[in-house]
């Protein structure tokens, strides 16, 4: 029997998407965006020196083929990642029309998105009046705050005090197909925020808005406002059976780590554990120790994206890659002969790029535990194919 550990490093793209010119950050097309390539270049030039220093040091990812994957995907060099790969390595290209998290994950799990998502216009107000009225009705408030495109950390600094004073929820969106609600955990109430998002989700899903996201925060003053890990994503269910459903239908356990449960609306998933990325790495180590024969463990490490990519924090992103590399380095030696660990990503989020949104990019496909060699370029669905073939499950 065999086991698969499929790990998504959220937003760790490697450039080269052939359709990048059709995706934008503001008015600027994503052509040339390269999350890993540009971080490695910034590190090598001494331009990512906060809390770390010098060239990007990710020896385990490098040995698995991360640098080679950057070169294959985009033709660009990733300074510091020049070692010959000792794992199976390749790069994957997305076909779904969105550069968002559900599109990326569903396609990695074998199901490209067959519809066009609804995006809210970058205007103020961004939301239609009947939607605002429905939010007010469900929240029991006279109005909402925000009602525009925003960065989540900036908008709570800006509107958090008004929210505390008026009780009105802060509603905002981005270049993704999302409706996000920020509210204070104590003053508005965490459960009330989660209930509000849960009640609104079917309305938004009918409009083909991919997710309603609860963004709870704490703190008394703008300088201390901080989002918590109680974030919840209420996503549309995948349109067809995914890798998770296939594995589960074959009578095998499917364990989720991090956001995976939310992204797949728990479809095809037995259990989920959540926490910070540091906690998720410990959960992954435990899964490698404990997961049963024939199982799929599917993990998402979100902090690359949420803490550093959207914030365009190059040093922070480099630190996160180096921390992740150390964590994975401790887990890799635990893999047994029947184990396959796949490290990949769902889209890019180049912290050196303009704007604050994701970037359309190819993603790495690094396979540990199953020998060495080049996998070449594949579609995102090739990742599901690798996992299913290893488990002996039909896709
Ligand atoms: O700026 P914050 O709130 O982190 O939001 C980001 O997170 C959302 C979901 O991943 C993206 O659509 C982007 O808007
Ligand atoms: Mn993502
Ligand atoms: Mn994101």
Short description:
By secondary structure, the protein is of the alpha/beta class. It has two domains: 4-114 and 239-391, Alkaline Phosphatase, subunit A; 129-235, Alpha-Beta Plaits. It is built from 13 helices and 16 strands.
SSE inventory with pairings:
Layout: E1 3-9, E2 24-25, E3 28-29, H1 35-44, H2 59-64, H3 66-74, E4 88-93, H4 101-108, H5 129-139, E5 145-149, H6 152-166, E6 170-173, E7 178-184, H7 185-206, E8 211-218, E9 226-227, E10 232-235, H8 243-249, E11 254-257, H9 260-263, E12 271-273, H10 277-290, E13 296-301, H11 303-309, H12 314-331, E14 339-344, E15 363-368, E16 373-379, H13 381-391
Parallel strand pairs: 1-13, 1-14, 4-16, 5-6, 7-8, 11-12, 11-13
Antiparallel strand pairs: 2-3, 4-15, 6-7, 8-9, 8-10, 14-15
Helix pairs in contact: 1-12, 5-7, 10-12, 11-12
Bound molecules: 1-O-phosphono-alpha-D-ribofuranose (R1P) and manganese (II) ion (MN) (2 copies).
Domain Metalloenzyme: 3-372
EC number: 5.4.2.7
Keywords: Cytoplasm, Isomerase, Manganese, Metal-binding
């Amino acid at each position: 029997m065999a086991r698969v550990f499929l790990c998504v490093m959220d937003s760790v793209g490697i450039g080269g998407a052939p359709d990048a010119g059709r995706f934008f950050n503001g008015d600027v097309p994503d052509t040339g965006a390269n999350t890993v390539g540009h971080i490695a270049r910034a590190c090598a030039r001494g331009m990512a020196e906060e809390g770390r220093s010098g060239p990007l040091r990710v020896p385990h990812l490098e040995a698995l083929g991360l640098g080679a994957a950057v070169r294959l995907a985009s033709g660009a060099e990733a300074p510091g990642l020049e070692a010959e790969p000792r794992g199976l390595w390749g790069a994957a290209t997305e076909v779904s029309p969105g550069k968002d998290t559900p599109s990326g994950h569903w396609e990695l799990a074998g199901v490209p998105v067959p519809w066009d998502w609804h995006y809210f216009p970058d205007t103020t107000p961004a939301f239609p009046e009947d939607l605002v009225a429905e939010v007010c009705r469900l929240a029991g408030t006279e109005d909402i705050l925000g009602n525009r495109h925003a960065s989540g950390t900036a908008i709570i600094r800006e509107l958090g005090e008004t929210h505390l004073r008026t009780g009105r929820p802060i509603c905002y969106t981005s270049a993704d197909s999302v409706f996000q609600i920020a509210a204070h955990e104590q003053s508005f109430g965490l459960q009330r925020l989660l209930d509000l998002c849960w009640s609104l989700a079917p309305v938004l899903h009918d409009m083909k808005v991919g997710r309603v996201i609860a963004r709870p925060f704490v703190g008394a003053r703008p300088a201390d406002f901080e989002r918590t890990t109680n974030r919840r994503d209420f996503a549309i269910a995948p349109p067809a059976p995914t890798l998770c459903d296939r594995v589960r239908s074959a009578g095998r356990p499917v364990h989720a780590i991090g956001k995976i449960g939310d992204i797949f609306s728990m479809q095809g998933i037995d259990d989920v554990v959540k926490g910070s990325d540091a906690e998720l790495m410990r959960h992954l180590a435990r899964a490698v120790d404990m997961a049963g024969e024939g199982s799929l463990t599917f993990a998402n490490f979100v902090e690359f994206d949420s803490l550093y990519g959207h914030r365009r924090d190059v040093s922070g992103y480099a630190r996160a890659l180096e921390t992740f590399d150390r964590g994975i380095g401790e887990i890799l030696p635990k893999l047994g002969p029947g184990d396959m660990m796949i490290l990949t990503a769902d889209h890019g989020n180049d912290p050196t790029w303009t704007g604050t949104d994701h970037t359309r990019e190819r993603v790495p496909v690094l396979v540990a535990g199953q020998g060495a060699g080049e996998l070449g370029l594949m579609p995102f669905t090739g990742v599901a194919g690798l996992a299913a073939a290893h488990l002996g499950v039909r896709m």
